[in-house]
Specification:
Blueprint lengths: L10 H10 L3 H12 L3 E6 L12 E2 L2 E2 L4 E6 L4 H4 L4 H29 L7 H11 L12 H7 L5 H8 L3 H27 L2
Length: 195
């Protein structure tokens, strides 16, 4: 695949776009449009009216629907390519929350590798605190799947690594922990993309 596809014709198109991280906003918009095909609007006709008969008149006027209702659309694109509403919502969350978190981890890891740990100490500390909160009070921005997958994965060690007077040990420990977190988050994304 080269560039962004005009249409999502298959699950593989979606997976390729998400993995390539081409344009998150455009991907989110395309997934939302796909999600919108799960329902369709149907008219609600007045009682005793036959909408199939074009000659049906009320007070000399053609019959108009009194309301519209949403019903399942088994012919919607979402179903035709083999997805469902839950899966597409999960993919939207992946693009919206999980991939940006992964980018943040990768950027922090690169800074640690480049001996710039002092510049991101606050970010590392905040990440450690966010991941060590009790289960009922985890950050709103972090999806449950990420939080529960990462909690207890040695993230408490980030704080102890940062206060270690030996900067080489602090840097090595923070780098190892960040790389482990990156692997876990990438694993979560991959599991979500196995549609």
């Amino acid at each position: 695949m080269k560039g962004y596809p005009k249409y999502f014709n298959s699950k593989q198109d979606i997976i390729n776009v998400i993995r390539a991280d081409l344009d998150p906003e455009m991907t989110k918009s395309a997934l939302q449009a796909l999600l919108n095909t799960a329902k369709r609007r149907e008219p609600v006709w007045p009682e005793g009216c036959d909408p199939e008969n074009p000659e049906t008149l009320v007070d000399g006027q053609p019959v108009q629907p009194i309301d519209w209702t949403e019903v399942d659309n088994p012919g919607g694109s979402i179903f035709l390519i083999g997805l469902d509403v839950t899966k597409v919502n999960s993919l939207i969350e992946t693009v919206d929350a999980i991939q940006p978190f992964l980018k943040q981890l990768v950027a922090m890891s690169e800074m640690v590798q480049n001996d710039e740990i002092e510049e991101i100490e606050d970010s590392l500390h905040n990440l450690s605190v966010n991941l060590s909160l009790d289960l009922d009070n985890h950050p709103d921005w972090m999806p449950d799947e990420i939080f529960f997958g990462l909690i207890g994965s040695g993230t408490e060690s980030l704080v102890s690594a940062l206060v270690n007077p030996n900067r080489d040990i602090a840097q090595d420990t923070a780098g190892e922990i960040l790389n482990a977190l990156i692997s876990q988050v990438q694993g979560i994304i991959d599991s979500r993309l196995n549609v």
